[in-house]
Amino acid sequence: MNAVDNQTIPMRWDDAHAATLTEAQLLLYRSNLLGADKRITNFGGGNTSAKIALPDPLTGETVEVLWVKGSGGDLGSMTLDGFSTLYMDKLQALKQRYRGLVYEDEMVDYLPHCTFNLNPRAPSIDTPLHAYIPHRHVDHMHPDAVIAIAATKRSRALTEAVYGGELGWLAWQRPGYDLGLALEQLARKHPHLKGVVLEGHGLFTWGETSKECYENTLRVIRRAGGFALRDTRGLPGLPVEQPIGETQARMALVARGLGERARGESAWAIAHRLVVERDRRLVPLAVASPELLLELEASAPAHGSLAVISEGRGDTRTTP
Q1: DSSP category for residue 255
Q2: Which of 135, 192, 142, 162 is nearest to 40 (CA)?
Q3: What is the DSSP letter of 204?
Q4: What is the pLDDT of residues 287-313, one digit of tens each?
Q5: How far apart are CA 105 and CA 100, in angstroms?
Q6: Are 276 and 253 in contact, with CB atoms under 8 Å apart?
Q7: Which of 25, 223, 234, 270 could be 305's S-S partner, Cβ–Cβ 3.0 to 4.6 Å?
Q8: Residue 152: its pLDDT value, please?
């Protein structure tokens, strides 16, 4: 990876505590850690999964079961009953029923037929995205640092510049069954990848253990944060600027992704007007919420920049 690692998001994994947990409990532990930090994902957003070997309640045979955050709830506060559980062999068999993109909505109705152990938790629309990625543990987060890259018009080039080929990239596509197949195809074709940036959406990362997945997710997000803190000279399509402070950089990070997508102009200048010229305000931009943007708009000069950023944020199209 080419960009510096931003250390502001700490690794909170506790090996001693993790050693006392089952595979399902490790998934919950990871989920709660990720969801507790809103720089990693928004409230109610994102989902996590693990493919776990369990005895079938009817036959007693060992089967592979997908545990994935179900519809509703929040990662930071969820409990074990917030996960859907589905037979992986049945999820794989669903591929035979898929009739193409025009008909992908009908695949949602098949998911309950894959339920393991009569679990009442409804599976979410993101279930196929987790099921078909060929790795045991998968995280799907909506970190502002990565969305600021994913939402730009130069999203693909910036992903390559920041991650140096360790992350893949997929063009915007509505979350659903077809996107799950696209993720599988990309991950199998490029087995060295550590994750995928989804244009205008968010991030998928993975690992072969719960700890490895957690640490990989944080490294990828921290790398995106470090991108905003370094000198941007030499990166594709970005203006030459001197390095700036962390507060200004966080605003630039958000503005770059949101302002540029709104009307194609350099959002670095927007960030400069909003933050560099207003350095007396220490803006806590770890998460640029709509409420924070409204607060900034009320105190910023009447040049309309916040309207541009707000409009851009509405186009990031994140999903729970």
Answers
A1: H
A2: 142
A3: E
A4: 343 434 444 444 444 333 333 333 333
A5: 10
A6: no
A7: 270
A8: 79
pTM of the model: 0.75
* Burial of residue 115, with CB atoms counted within 10 A of its CB: 0-12 exposed, 13-18 middle, 19 or more buried: middle
- 3-state SS assignment for residue 220: helix
Q: What Rg, from alpha-carbon coordinates, does the chain have?
A: 20
pLDDT at 148 (0 to 100) = 80
What architecture is domain 15-229? Answer: 3-Layer(aba) Sandwich (3.40)
User: How large is the greatest C-alpha to C-alpha distance in the chain, in angstroms?
Assistant: 68
Exposure of 71 by Cβ count < 10 A (0-12 exposed, 13-18 middle, 19+ buried)?
middle
Which residues, other chains included, contact 171 with Cβ-Cβ below 8 Å and sequence gap of 6+?
Answer: 156, 199
Mutual orientation of helices 210-229 and 246-263 as an angle, nearest 10°? 90
Residue 180, C-beta contacts closer than 8 angstroms, at least 6 positions apart: 127, 128, 129, 130, 131, 132
Q: Say how far apart CA 6 and CA 285 lie, in whole Å.
A: 14
What beta strand segments (E) does 36-179 contain?
47-55, 62-69, 83-87, 137-141, 167-170
**pLDDT tens-digit readout, 142-165:** 988 888 888 877 889 999 999 999
Q: Which helix (H) or strand (E) holds 89?
A: helix 88-93
- Residues in a beta bridge with 63: 54
Q: Retrieve residue 80's tokens.
A: 């074990």
Look at residue 271 and tell me whether its pLDDT is greater than 50.
no
